[in-house]
Amino acid sequence: MYGKCGLVEEAKEVFDGIKRWNEYSWTMILSAYAHNGHFHAALGLFWRMLLEGIRVDSFTLSIAITVCSDLGDLSSGQSVRAVAVESGLHSDLVVATALVNLYGKSCGFDSGLIVQTAVLTMYGRFGKLEQAKEVFDAMPERTVVAWSALIAACAQNGCERNAFRIFRLMELEGVRPDHVTFVSMLAACGSLEEAKTIHERIAAAGYESFVMLGNSLVSLYGKCGSIQDARDAFDRITARNIVTWNSMIATYAQQGRGREVLELYERIMDEKLVKPNVITVVSILDACADMAALERGSEIHATHSSLSQEIESDIVVKTSLVNLYGKCGRVASARAVFDKIFARDVVAWNTMIAAYAQHGHDTQAMELYWDLTLEGVTPNDSSFVSILFSISHGGRRSRDAVSQLSSIREDYTNFTPKVEHYSCLVDTLARAGSLREAEELFFAMPCLPTEAVCFSLLNACKVHGDFDRAARVAERSFQLHGLVGNSQALVMLSSIFSSAGRDKLEDGFVGAVPSKELESFIEIDKVVHEFSAGDGSSHPRAEEIRRELARCVLDEQDSRRHHSEMLAVGLGLISTPHGRELQVVKKSRACWDCHAALKIISERTRRRIVLRDESKFHHFEISGGCSCKDCW
């Protein structure tokens, strides 16, 4: 109100009196300054807003771009445009219109050329590549801005090969790429090799110190799975902003490196380097969910929700909290948070449905799925995977899964089943003992079966003693993915051969079975402990863990050979009060021996033990049973 009445100082006083600034309050004061002609101050507030870690929207960006237009500051306008690209808002109509106005008013180049470039940019953002190319070809002079706009148009619309071709033509024309060009080229990279090639060009052009490019490199290397390259790029950035930290945190989180995620978070908080925002909190919560670090995750959420209204009310943060509770075995708490989300999107629905499915609550999963459709929300591939998974792991008949998939295809004609959906069908058939049908579907799948599909079928073959079928399935999987990509299948095949009375795998497989399994985690007093097989002798409390496991399980078992989840459980037994429930996460599937041992431990210690492996949740009860009914 003060801003609209020209009372900028009064508006600033009100702004300064707000205890917790959010995106809305920042945008209002920015608008007040811009509306009353305080353009330099408005632009300064915009950059300060970014430094504070406040998320910008299309309206905020349009104000900043308009301010640059009024100042005739094309350089600052290009910098704001780069922020829009980095935020994924470059294709928004309001932002694009403001950019056209900026280019039209600026006098740094011929105005006709500027308008042509703006029109080219608009066409690219709305997927009109042919029209964008026509505008580009008609230009009497092509500046670096025009070349960059065409490259960006290709990168934004899935024409990455064309982006590289245009980049090479640009250099042949003698036009030197700028930092905006390289931002678009990084977006066009689809492999680690391409990322490193463009990185070399960035360094050669002297742009490696640009924080925006550094952020893009961290994110790109992370997507390519190269954690070390991402960390090297991160360490080279001297003026890191919240986007930098979020990119590195997200990279670690996506690769399952939860410990490193928490280390970066602690560094941010201890050194007060930047102010965490919604994206930071979401990444942290997801990492805690993967490690079942419920106490730590809940504490982090509570801390930042109390400091930021934006974080407290954000739907993505709430969805991540649902995910945290669901993956930590607190389904009721997950549902309580879900019910309080005001405008649920399909991701929120999927997260809650998945929580029910992973815990074997197939009825609740199906009921929630029908609620989703009644609310008018269109389900997506993830929704269908969760429903099929719930049927598979909820003990329903195999024909229920087939019927459900047929129903989905009838109701949603644009839906094409993918490997995840076929995997659920194979898994359902295998669990039902229909091994012949499961094998036929495995070989007939129109998409490449994953290692998880192979493992599920091999597991069923072991249960039913069908060793010949297991050999055929394993051979097919090895043909498709090689030995390196089938570590769990190799372990299972070795176990099957052992059950059949054979001492070792076939000659071609000898030495291929990995000697070290993936990690397991347990949270004790907000500290996450990580174990791998063989860590039993190196842990500070190794001897205590060994004795406790020997006491709880059969005495003749060699505790040193226990797998990572057993070591985690052993630490939990000696570190927590008697009777307290233990929560353990294992990155791979639990083996039969450990599963049997955990049932014994739960019964003898009178503790509930919840194990989340790659397949599902196992709730071991003090009665000596497991929620999976020995089928996973």
TrEMBL record:
Keywords assigned: Repeat
PPR repeat copies, ranges: 22-56, 143-177, 241-276, 345-379
Keyword Repeat part of the UniProt annotation: yes
Record domain DYW: where: 561-632
Organism superkingdom: Eukaryota
GO biological process per UniProt: RNA modification; system development
UniProt-listed InterPro entries: DYW_dom, PPR_At4g14850-like_plant, PPR_rpt, TPR-like_helical_dom_sf
PANTHER family: DYW DOMAIN-CONTAINING PROTEIN (PTHR47926:SF533), PENTATRICOPEPTIDE REPEAT-CONTAINING PROTEIN (PTHR47926)
Protein name: DYW domain-containing protein
Source organism per UniProt: Selaginella moellendorffii (Spikemoss)
